[in-house]
Amino acid sequence: MNGEPVDPAKVEVVAAFLSEAFPGRDVHTAYAGDQSSQFYWIGLGASQAHRIYVSREFLDDHATDEIHRLLAEWPTAAMIRTAGLRRVIIANHGVGIVGGLTAP
Length: 104
Hints:
This protein is an alpha+beta fold. It has one domain. The chain contains four helices and six strands; from the N terminus they run H-E-E-E-H-H-H-E-E-E. Strands 1-2-3-4-5-6 form a six-stranded mixed sheet. The longest helix has 14 residues, at 8-21.
């Protein structure tokens, strides 16, 4: 878990979910080791519209199909839209906006 890379299939399932939820937007990702999270940002060209951190624990604890199911069941896309440029955290307890709403 610690120094090992995040399972690329799990990283991709989140990226695919975000691409489906935000059609026409670019989805980028990188590992944020200082946050123990996979960082995703959604934008159009050079402009950044949304920042999402998916906890390493969430990715490690769930199978690929379960990750997609949870992202779809939770109000993930709505929370990201509501957040704007504020950070969104996705973890085992659900999805939340830093300094704002949280929902399972």
